[in-house]
Amino acid sequence: MKLSDLHTGQQAVIVKVKGHGGFRKRILEMGFVKGQEVEVLLNAPLQDPVKYKVMGYEVSLRRQEAEMIEVEATHEEPVSQESRRPEITVALVGNPNCGKTSLFNFASGAHERVGNYSGVTVDAKEGYTDFGRFRIRLVDLPGTYSLSAYSPEELYVRRQLVDSTPDVVINVIDSSNLERNLYLTTQLMDMHLRVVCALNMFDETERRGDRFNIETLSRLLGMPLVPTSFKTGRGLEQLLGEVVHIFENREGHDEYYRHQHIKHGHEIEEGIANIQKYLKGNDLLRLRYSTRWLALKLLENDEAAEKVIADLPECEQILLARDQAVRRVKEETGDDAETAIMDAKYGFIRGALHEAGYQRGEKDDTYRTTHWIDALITNKWLGFPIFLALLFLMFEVTFTLGQYPMDWIDMGVQWLGDLISENMSDGPLKAMLVDGIIGGVGSVIVFLPQILILYTFISVMEDSGYMARAAFIMDKIMHGMGLHGKSFIPLIMAFGCNVPAVMATRTIESRRSRLITMLVLPMMSCSARLPIYIMITGAFFAVKYQSLIMISLYVTGILLSVLMARILCTWVIKGDDTPFVMELPPYRCPTAKAVFRHTWEKGKQYLKKMGGIILVASIIVWALGYFGTMGVAPSLEDSFIGLLGKAVEPVFSVQGFDWRLDVSLLAGVGAKEIVASTIGVLYNGDYNFSPLVAYSFLLFVLIYFPCIATIVAIKNESGSWRWAVFAALYTTALAWIVSAVFYQVGSLWL
Ligand code: GDP
Ligand code: MG
User: Fold this and answer.
1) What is the pLDDT of residue 115?
2) Taking 80 as the threshold, does the pLDDT of residue 46 lie above it?
3) Which of 48, 97, 303, 348 is least buried, going by the fewest C-beta atoms within 10 A?
C-alpha cells in the first residue's frame, strides 16, 4: 500500500521508495528509507501536505510524494511466508540479441522464445525468481538500440521504464560489441535509473581475447558490471546479488553505484540547465521524470517529450529555451542538437573504453567465421539459390519424412474408430464419437508431425541467425514490393502461423511498411492450411505431382502477396520509405535444447487448438449433419448442414463447388483446420468432384479470410478495426475471383 493511503494514527514500515533522481534522494535523506517505521501524525482528506513522524522527527510530505512511497502496515499480520518476501521489480533492457530472454529463462526457469533477430520479444514477459530473502520479479522487454522514439519498441521500453518504474534495471550488454551496446547504457544513465550491467556473451569476448579493466569501466559508468554468459548461466548469482545491493539503497555510498552525468558539451549543457529551471518548478513532473533526461529529450526534438510538457503553464518558455539552445548548438558545431548529443555520448563511451584499457582481441573471432559464412550466403549469385534450396529442403523433408509418423497416427485413429464402432450400440452417441469427434479431430491431428518438422526448420533458421540473412538477401525484392527486408521475417514466420507473424511486424520502423506487411501476410500459407492441401492433393493427384501442386499453392500465395503489396503501396497506403539498418548478428550454433523447446511450444499450441475450437467445431458440424428439420436426417442432404450448404450454393456455383465444400469453407472461418475436419466428416473419403474443382477449392482456401485469431491480431497491431475488416474483406473477394477465374478458364481446356 501507499504511504498516502494511511490514516491519522496508523503506523507502517517503509517497503520502498519509487520515483527518480533528485526527488528520491531527498526523500531518502529525510529518513524515508526501507525498513524504517513511520507514523501518520495528521492526514485529513483534503489536507496537503501530510504530517509524518519518522526516525523521531516530524516531517511533512506532499500527498503526491507520499504516493511514491510504498509501505506495509504494521498492524496487519502477513498471511504467509511467501507473501512476506519483499519484491524487487527488475526490467531487462538491452539491444536485440544480447541475451535478455536467455537471462530471463535462466533466472525464472521459464520457457520464453529466444531468437537470433530483433523482434522475437515483442511484449513484456514476466517471471520471477527467489533470491535470498527477496522475490525478484523479472520483466523481459523488447530489444532496442536506443531510447529515442523511432520504433514502437523503443517507445514501449521507454514507457515501461517511466510509467512502471522498475526498482532496478538490468542492462544486458553484448560484451563482444561493447561500443554500440553502451550507447543504450548512456541513455539509461540520463534517465537516472538504478542500473546493473550484465556483460553478457563474455564467453565469446574471452575467446576472442578482448581485454579491458572491468573495475575501471564500472567506476567510470557508476554502475556495477558483471561478466555473464547465459549460455551456461555464469555470473547469474553475482548479477542478482548486485541487484539486491543496489535495491538496498547504497547509492552514493559506493563508487560503483553513482549517478553519472555525461557531459554533452558546453552549449547543450547550458540548454539543459535553462530548460531544467522550468521543469524543476513542476512537482508532478519531477516525481515522474528525471528533469535532465526530459530536457535532453526536448533538445532532441522528441515528440513524446513535447507531449509531456504540452499542458504545463511554462510550456512556451520551455520551448523557447529549447529553440535557443538548438540554434546555438547549430551555430557553434554546425550540427543539430540530436547529432551533437549522440556524438557526445559516443565520445563518452570511447573515452571510458580507452581509460579502461580496452583492447580488442585477435584470437578466434566469432565474427571472422561469420564474415566468411556471410560472404557465401549473401553472395550475389549464390545467396538466392542457397535460399531457395533451403526452402525446398524444408518442404521436402516436411512432407516426405512427415509421412511416416502421419501414417502411424492415421492407423491409430482408424483403430480407435473401429474399436468404438464394434463395441457400442448404434445411436447418436456412437455416431457423434466415431463420425464427429474421431472423424473430425482425427483428420487434423494426423498432421501434427509435419507441423512439428516445419517448426523445427523455422526454429533452426531463426536461432542460427540465418533468418536475418534471408531478410538481407530479400531486401531488394522487398523494396520492389514497397516493403522492407525486415518484412521478410514476418512473412516467413507466417508459414507457421499468421498470428505471431502479425505481431512480429512490430520490428518494422515504418508504419506504412508495417501495415502493408500485416495485410499481405495472410497470403502466406500457414500450417493450418496444410492439412487441407495434403488431404485434397492426396486424393486427387498422382504421387509424383503432389509436391509440385503443394509448392504451386505456396508460390501462388507468395506472388499474390507481392501483387497485393504493390497495389496497396501504390494506391491505398501512400507515404515514404524510411531507411533503416539491418542487423546481421553473428552465427550461433543453435542448441538442440532450445530448438526442441521452441518446436514443442508450437506443438503444444496446436494440440490445445485441437482440444478446443476444433473439437467443438467438429461436434457442431457433425450435429448439423446428423439432425434435420425432422429429427435425425435420413441423408446428409436433408440435414441442417445440407440446407445451409444449399442456401449458399449459388454464391459458389461459378467455382463448381458443391454444398459440402461450401459448408466446410463457412466452418473454416474459425480456424482453417476446421475445413479439413469438416471435409473429413462430410465426405468420409468419398469425393465426387473433379481435380479442376479440387484445385480451385485449394486456391480459395489459400486466399480467403485467414481466421478469426489473425484478424483480431491485425486489429490489435494496426490499432483499428478498419484495417482488420479490410483484410477480411479483400482476402475473401480475392479468393472468390481467383478461384472463379481458374475454374472457368480451366473448364475451357479440360
Ligand atoms: P534477446 O534478443 O536479447 O532476448 O536475446 P536472446 O536471449 O534471444 O539471445 C540471442 C542469442 O544469443 C541466442 O541464440 C542465445 O542462445 C545466444 N546467447 C545468449 N547469451 C549468450 C552468451 O552469454 N554467450 C553466447 N555465446 N551466446 C549467448
Ligand atoms: Mg528476447
Assistant:
1) 45
2) no
3) 303
**The pLDDT value given to residue 251:** 54
Contact present, 330 and 307 (Cβ < 8 Å)? no
Q: Is 346 helix (H, G, I), strand (E, B) or coil?
A: helix
Computed on alpha carbons and rounded to an integer, the radius of gyration of the chain in Å comes to 31
Among 736, 493, 699, smallest CA distance to 598 is for 493
All three cell numbers of 692: 479442376
Phi, psi (deg, nearest 5) at residue 627: -100, 150
Rounded to the nearest angstrom, the distance between the alpha carbon of 367 and the centre of ligand 1 is: 15
Beta carbons of 170 and 177 less than 8 angstroms apart: no
CB 276 within 8 A of CB 292: yes
Q: How far is the CA of 118 from the centre of ligand 2 (A)?
A: 8
444-455 pLDDT tens trace: 777 788 778 877
The answer to whether 90 and 172 are in contact (CB under 8 A) is no
Long-range contacts of 570-578 (CB under 8 A, 24+ apart): 570/482, 573/512, 573/515, 573/516, 574/512, 575/510, 575/511, 575/512, 576/512, 577/479, 577/482, 577/484, 577/510, 577/512, 577/513, 578/509, 578/510
Provide the pLDDT for residue 118.
41
Which cell is 203 given?
A: 564467453
Window from 338-347, 541-550, 568-577, 675-684 with minimum mean pLDDT: 568-577
Query: Which residues are registered as beta bridge partners of 53?
Result: 39, 58
Q: Which ligand is nearest to the CA of 97?
A: 1
Burial of 290 (0-12, 13-18, 19+ CB in 10 A): buried
Amino acid at 233: G
Helix, strand, or coil (residue 668)? coil
Q: What is the pLDDT of residue 275?
A: 92
By the 8 A CB rule, do 52 and 71 touch? Answer: no
Q: How many CA atoms lie within 13 A of 455 on its CB side?
A: 27
Any alpha helices (H) in 627-684, and if so which ranges?
640-648, 659-667, 673-683
Where do the DSSP E strands lie in 63-151? 69-73, 87-94, 125-131, 134-140
Contact status, residue 699 vs residue 553, Cβ threshold 8 Å: yes
Neighbouring residues of the ion ligand 2, judged by CB less than 5 Å: 100-101, 121
pLDDT confidence of 121, banded at 50, 70, 90?
very low
Q: Give phi and psi for 57, each to the nearest 5.
A: -105, 155
* Most informative mutation of 102, 234, 369 for ligand 1 (most atoms within 8 A of CB): 102
Atom of ligand 1 nearest to the CA of 115: 8
Is residue 504 over pLDDT 60?
Answer: yes
500 pLDDT higher than 80: no
Backbone angles phi, psi at 2, to 5 degrees: -90, 155
What CA dihedral angle connects 623, 625, 628 and 633, to 10 degrees? -110
The tens digit of pLDDT for each residue in 560-571 reads 998 999 899 888
- 221 class by beta-carbon count within 10 Å (0-12 exposed, 13-18 middle, 19+ buried): buried
pLDDT confidence of residue 364: 61
The answer to whether the CB of 125 falls within 8 A of the CB of 139 is: yes
- Across 250-264, 286-300, 466-480, the highest mean pLDDT is recorded for 286-300
Closest CA to 449 of 399, 411, 497: 399
Q: 337-355 vs 178-190: helix axis angle to the nearest 10?
A: 120
Query: Mean of the per-residue pLDDT values for the chain?
Result: 83
Predicted TM-score of the model (pTM):
0.62
C-alpha to C-alpha distance for 276 and 299, rounded to whole angstroms: 11
Going from the Cα of 175 to the center of ligand 1, the distance in angstroms, rounded, reads 12
| DSSP collapsed to 3 states, 495-558 | CCCHHHHHHHHHHCCCHHHHHHHHHHHHHCCCCCCHHHHHHHHHHHCCHHHHHHHHHHHHHHHH
Neighbours of 664 (CB within 10 A): 26
Ligand 1 proximity of 201 Cβ (cutoff 6 Å): yes
